[in-house]
Amino acid sequence: MDSFREKVNLGIRLNITIMSGLEDGTMLKYNSENGDGHQLPDGTWVFSIGRHDDNDICLRNDTFVSREHARILFHNHRWQLLDNGSTNGTYIETSDNDQRVTETVPLSKGQIFRVGRTWLRLDPTD
Fold it and tell me: Helix (H, G, I), strand (E, B), or coil: what is residue 2?
């Protein structure tokens, strides 16, 4: 089996819980084996977030979310968050205040972050 197939068969699973707004409490489940997300040539899995229907995580009810707002990356067994240059920003919750994401930042299990005005929680499955 080639290395690409081995990476695909890892079955990257991701749960995102919406923590605010109209869909508060909704858990969204993603699995690379079902065709969710897409894999880059370097093996990184990407899950897109935005208001446009083509995104893996579509937040159409939040008008502060850009069409292609941000991405969650899974690379080297680590989750990361990256803003796509959105107008209203992407933020991670910290103990002091909310930190704007200006470059790729690591996400830990249970990490809360905001896209537009929607708070989300990263709940990857093990």
Answer: coil
Q: Which backbone phi and psi does 4 adopt, to 5 degrees?
A: -65, -45
pTM, entire model: 0.86
Asked if 36 and 45 count as a contact pair (C-beta separation under 8 A), the reply is no
Closest CA to 91 of 116, 122, 123, 66: 116
The pLDDT tens digits for 85-126 are 999 999 998 888 889 999 999 999 999 999 999 999 998 776
Q: Decide if 30 contacts 122 (C-beta within 8 A).
A: no
The CA-based angle 64-79-86, given to 5 degrees, is 20
Sign of CA pseudo-dihedral 109, 111, 116, 118: positive
